[in-house]
Design brief:
Number of helices: 4
Shape: globular
Strand content: 25-35%
Order of helices and strands: HHEEEEEEEHEEEHEE
Oligomer: single chain
Distance between the termini: 61 Å
Structural class: alpha+beta
Number of strands: 12
Low-confidence stretches: none
Helix content: 25-40%
Radius of gyration: 19 Å
Largest sheet: 8 strands, antiparallel
């Protein structure tokens, strides 16, 4: 019984610690949204629907989509706010997924840090875009060879755990990088590959899935 009590006690302590973290994250959200519970709920709903729509888009394209070869740096769309976006921006993700496995796409799995694939650049980051950023800063990121999908973007949300991720995403992880470039909203392919374009309109979202020769897929979402 003593062992069982010890196990239960540890489980309770773990759950209490999780609740404390969740409470702090929600308090931060309320600060960001100016203490508006309504805005908080709207953003939460938008993030959940974003994931659902991207998953649905992949399912539709895997059954009836027709690919088009695109070259590195080729224009593929314009930054927008379609598909439950909280503002005009590009959601850019990278998944370990081959074209033949498009029907196996899972929004919540198989993703990796886009900064590991994009080339090195110094870019502005918005306050609270990453866990360790409390103010606007410039950072150097990127350790790969791909071109950036936008000319001079500002990063508005990093990959992984962010001040927004636990409350907005089921996995607690932001699966990509959010960025915006108001001066030049054109979006380009980071590398050559076979592109599938999905047009769900303002409510469902517009985006492009590009499959590259190295077995990775780049995802571009919220496009006009």
């Amino acid at each position: 019984k003593r062992k069982e009590l010890d196990i239960l006690k540890k489980q309770l302590e773990k759950e209490q610690a999780t609740l404390v973290v969740q409470k702090k994250e929600k308090e931060l959200f309320l600060q960001v949204t100016r203490n508006s519970e309504t805005v908080y709920r709207q953003n939460l709903d938008a993030a959940q629907k974003e994931a659902q729509n991207i998953q649905q888009a992949a399912s539709i394209l895997s059954q009836a989509g027709v690919s088009k070869h695109v070259s590195r740096g080729e224009a593929i769309g314009i930054m927008g706010n379609t598909g439950f976006s909280t503002g005009s921006h590009l959601h850019f993700s990278v998944y370990n997924l081959r074209e033949a496995d498009l029907n196996k796409f899972n929004f919540e799995a198989g993703y990796e840090n886009p900064f590991n694939n994009l080339s090195s650049r110094s870019l502005p980051f918005s306050a609270l875009s990453c866990d360790d950023l409390g103010s606007n800063q410039t950072r150097t990121v990127g350790s790969g060879s791909w071109e950036w999908p936008m000319v001079s973007p500002t990063i508005s949300q990093c990959f992984g755990h962010t001040p927004y991720s636990s409350a907005y995403y089921k996995s607690g992880i932001h699966s990509g990088v959010d960025m915006f470039d108001d001066a030049n909203p054109l979006i380009r392919a980071v590398d050559s590959g076979n592109a599938y374009t999905y047009r769900g309109g303002q409510s469902k979202g517009n985006g492009v899935f590009i499959f590259h020769d190295n077995g990775k897929m780049s995802l571009y979402w919220h496009m006009q």
